[in-house]
Design a protein that fits this description.
By secondary structure, this protein is mainly α. Helix content is 69%, strand content 5%. Strand 1 and strand 2 form a beta hairpin.
Length: 191
Amino acid sequence: MNWLNSEAFTVLDQHIKWSDMIGNVIGLIALALGWRRSLWTWPAQFVSGLILFAAFATAHLSGSAGKQVVVMLVAAWGFLQWNRGRQQAQDGAIAVGGLFTLYPSLSWDPWPDAYIFVGTIVAMYAQARGMVEFWFAWLLVDLVGVPLNFANGFAFSGFVYIIYGALVLWGLRDWWLRSREARPAPEGAPA
């Protein structure tokens, strides 16, 4: 299992770890599946979260590791929601940044880390509910995630966040156009 945290290669003087690369490639696959409204987006997000959790926990990045726990929990919940064909949404809060500030060992950069953590919860919740607005939440997470990932040594995640940003804009447009026509149920959900 040590090979997962070893260096796969170097790009632009950034050391790319196997776990960072594999977890994010599976995350990109999950995004593509979500875009197609496939029920398989959720198992893919769960596996991506599991791999990235192991990577971040080993690197002692508790905020990022905690985010992956939320990703896995929401992926399980989203799978159940899409399986039932339900929809709606809600929002997150500032308490996470306060927690990370009170316990500095949880995160070296508490407020951006908390922002990504809460933004991920909001985005995944909205996605699980089938709301078009989840794309906006992901875009805001990407704007902070790119510099934060480069700063804490997860360059592949930083590169992937750039790709996510472009795909989020494209996906937002696609979902928006489809939602204006008719609101189809997610693939695999009862009609």
